Amino acid sequence: MDEIVRFTYRLRPGATARGALLAEWGRCRWLWNEAVHQQKTGRRPTFRTLSKLLTEARARLSWLREGSQVAQQQTLRTYALALQHSYKITRRGRPAFKPRSKTLPSLEYTLRGFTIRDRRLRLAGGITIPVVWSRELPSDPTSVRVYQDSLGHWYASFVVRRDTAPTPAPAAETAIGVDWGVTVTATTTDPAYDLPHLGHRRRCAAELARMQRRMSRRRRPRGNPPSKGYLRARRQAAKLHRKAARQNTHDARQWAKRVVADHAVIAVEDFRPRFLARSTMARKVADVAVGAAKRELIDLGVRAGRKVVLVAPAYTTMTCSQCGTRAKERLGLGIRTFRCGDCGYTACRDRNAARTILATVERDRAGADDVRHVITSLRAGGGVRSEPEIPRLPTVGKR
């Protein structure tokens, strides 16, 4: 059985190709904004309605016909899907207007809109771009997304099918529990496999603050185009952000490889730090990068054929890992040592939580061999029940 994944590669477009990509993005952005206008007039445009409007617009406007119809149709399809999901999920807002100064280019092409010839990416409209092939594609791509990041670098993200057969991994029989934190990124049942907080963003905080002050000084009043000095300062700030993010991803990947190689069962706290990003701990959480470490551990564990179990974080800090007794009061963040009132067990707060997570999985060993959820019962001493993990589209990192 195959799985659908993304393989991302760096592009090296020349001046002509870069200008053609930006021109194509200008047409697609205009279509997106026209669809937003249709929505604001009280209508709910579907992809069928937008396709008819695109046909009429291409027949009327010569500059729109110069672009690729595939990329324009995919832009409207993305808009229609986003609008459909926004009506189903109330927390997600409606598609918004895309201004030229604040939106990064992103183009999507299906099979009839691109080819790979002589190791170059050829897009509809006569655009040819060299690709930095860091590795071979596992199969022929079905679609590609060409986009530009905040540093001005261009990338191509191919959607391909990959064999789901696990890669050979060393034989292992041990199990490990992982608890996420802020002081220490990952605390495990074995102290030798802890992931410390390395503080990559904190080390570049002074330089980042200097670039942000420079941006503030060089910012022009609203309505005026940004100066070259402001753009240089913004690029330097974006480079610092990208460097810290790549360092966090590299450290998380190396740690995840070590954990997966030595353990057959991996119990992971299903902690989602999104709510902390809106609190006063936002900068600290961004520096810790729990999401990157969790993603790398799950993906590498599944690829290696390990048993990865996601455990709900509820009551893991309040439960004793030795006797299973739950404390009657919540532990404050300032209390870093767990003490059980029944058996007298004393341990580090996070270490006890990691052992509780592992004990929860060991009580329910009969289940699927892939990623699954284990939700602890709300009653003290209750059992567990498992739920299948929602399938996602994995992303292979840039090389």
UniProtKB/TrEMBL annotation:
Residues 213-232 are annotated as: Disordered. Keywords: DNA recombination, DNA-binding, Transposition. GO terms for biological process: DNA recombination; transposition. Residues 213-222 have a biased composition (Basic residues). The keyword DNA-binding applies. Residues 303-357 form the Cas12f1-like TNB domain. This is Transposase. Pfam families: Cas12f1-like_TNB, OrfB_IS605. NCBIfam families: guided_TnpB (NF040570). In the C-terminal section; belongs to the transposase 35 family. InterPro entries: Cas12f1-like_TNB, Transposase. It comes from the Bacteria. GO terms for molecular function: DNA binding. Residues 165-271 form the Probable transposase IS891/IS1136/IS1341 domain.
